[in-house]
C-alpha cells in the first residue's frame, strides 16, 4: 500500500538535500544488513506482530523498508525533503513525513521508535538532543522502547580525519573530513558531481557532533526516559568498521 508523504512544519534542516542522491545510491543500503539484526534483537523482539514503529531520521528509507517487510507498521520522519522523496520510492508502504526530529508532531502514538546509522550525531548539541528525546517520547505509548546509536570519539578520530572519494558511472563524490577534538565536531566537506545530460556540481558540508555519554544520559532522564541500557555495537554482533566505537542506547518511555 502506497502512503502519502506529508510535511510537518517547521522544517529547518535542508542542508542534507544535496546529499540525498549520492547517499541513496552508495550509503543507504550498506548499513542495513549490519544494523537490522541488532534492531531485531534489542528492539523488535519486544514487540507484537504488526506493532507501530517510528523511524526517526529515516533518510532514504532502505532501513525503513526492511522493518516494514518484517511486518511492522512503520512511519518515518526526516528533515530532508529530498531524502524523503527517495524514501517514498524505497519504502512505499511506510507513512513518511518531512519534519525536524527536534520539533515534529504526528497525530499518533507508537509501540516503539528507533534512530540508526548515528543519525543523532547530526544533532549539534545537548539542547538539540533533549528536544529530540522529548519529541520522540511524546509519540510513544507507555513503556514503549526507543533504540538509537551514536558514534564515540575513537570512531571520529579514526574515520573523520581523511580524504576519500566514490566514483561511479553517473556520479562522483569527494569527501574531505576532519574532526576537531576541542569542539568535538566532525566536518565532512563534500563535492559531488552528477550526470544529467551534463555534469552538475554541488558543494556542501555535513557535520556531526561527538556527544559526551553523560550529556546523552542526562538529556534522556530530563526528557522522562528511564531504564537506560547501553550496548557496544561489536558486543551486539556488528562486525567491521561500522561496529567500531559505536554505542546503542535502549531506553523506555
Please describe what this structure looks like.
The protein is α/β, with parallel strands linked by helices. It has two domains: 5-152 and 210-252, 3-Layer(aba) Sandwich (Rossmann fold), CATH 3.40.50.150; 155-208, Single Sheet (N-terminal domain of TfIIb). It is 27% helix and 33% strand. It is built from seven helices and twelve strands. The protein has helices at 20-26, 30-42, 62-69, 81-90, 126-138, 153-159, 213-223; strands at residues 5-7, 52-56, 73-78, 95-98, 112-115, 145-151, 162-167, 171-180, 185-196, 198-209, 226-232, 246-252. The strands form two sheets. The protein has an eight-stranded mixed β-sheet with strand order 1-4-3-2-5-6-12-11, sandwiched between helices. A four-stranded antiparallel β-sheet has the order 7-8-9-10. Helix 5 packs parallel to helix 7 (213-223). Mean pLDDT is 92; it is low at 9-13.
Summarize the structure.
The chain has 253 residues and is α/β, with parallel strands linked by helices.
The CATH topology of the largest domain turns out to be Rossmann fold
Tell me the strand percentage band: 25-35%
Can you write the helix and strand succession as a string?
EHHEHEHEEHEHEEEEHEE
| CATH top-level class of the largest domain | Alpha Beta
Instruction: Catalogue the unreliable spans.
Output: 9-13
Strand order of the largest sheet: 1-4-3-2-5-6-12-11
Which class of secondary structure composition applies to the elements?
alpha/beta
CATH architecture of the largest domain: 3-Layer(aba) Sandwich
Helix fraction by DSSP (H/I, runs of at least 4): 25-40%
CATH H-level superfamily title of the largest domain: Vaccinia Virus protein VP39
Terminal residue distance: 30 Å
Radius of gyration: 17 Å
Number of strands: 12
- How many DSSP H or I helices? 7
Q: Averaged pLDDT, please?
A: 92
Judging from the principal axes of the Cα atoms, what is the shape? globular
Largest sheet: 8 strands, mixed
Amino acid at each position: 500500500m502506497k502512503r502519502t508523504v506529508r510535511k510537518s512544519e517547521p522544517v529547518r534542516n535542508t542542508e542534507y538535500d544535496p546529499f540525498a542522491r549520492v547517499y541513496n545510491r552508495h550509503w543507504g543500503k550498506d548499513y542495513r544488513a549490519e544494523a537490522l539484526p541488532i534492531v531485531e534483537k534489542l528492539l523488535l523482539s519486544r514487540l507484537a506482530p504488526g506493532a507501530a514503529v517510528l523511524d526517526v531520521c529515516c533518510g532514504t528509507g532502505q532501513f525503513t523498508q526492511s522493518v516494514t517487510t518484517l511486518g511492522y507498521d512503520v512511519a518515518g520522519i526526516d528533515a530532508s525533503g529530498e531524502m524523503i522523496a527517495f524514501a517514498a520510492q524505497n519504502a512505499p508502504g511506510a507513512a513518511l513525513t518531512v519534519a525536524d526530529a527536534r520539533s515534529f508532531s504526528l497525530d499518533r502514538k507508537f509501540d516503539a521508535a528507533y534512530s540508526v546509522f548515528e543519525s543523532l550525531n547530526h544533532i549539534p548539541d545537548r539542547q538539540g538532543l533533549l528536544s529530540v528525546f522529548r519529541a520522540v517520547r511524546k509519540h510513544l505509548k507507555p513503556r514503549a522502547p526507543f533504540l538509537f546509536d551514536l558514534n564515540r570519539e575513537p570512531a571520529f578520530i579514526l574515520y573523520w580525519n581523511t580524504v576519500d572519494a566514490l566514483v561511479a558511472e553517473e556520479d562522483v563524490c569527494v569527501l574531505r573530513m576532519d574532526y576537531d577534538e576541542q569542539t568535538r565536531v566532525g566536518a565532512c566537506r563534500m563535492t559531488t558531481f552528477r550526470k544529467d545530460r551534463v555534469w552538475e556540481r554541488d558543494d556542501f558540508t555535513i557535520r556531526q557532533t561527538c556527544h559526551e555519554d553523560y550529556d546523552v544520559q542526562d538529556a534522556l532522564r530530563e526528557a522522562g526516559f528511564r531504564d537506560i541500557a547501553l550496548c557496544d555495537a561489536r558486543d551486539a554482533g556488528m562486525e567491521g568498521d561500522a561496529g567500531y566505537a559505536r554505542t546503542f542506547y535502549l531506553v523506555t518511555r
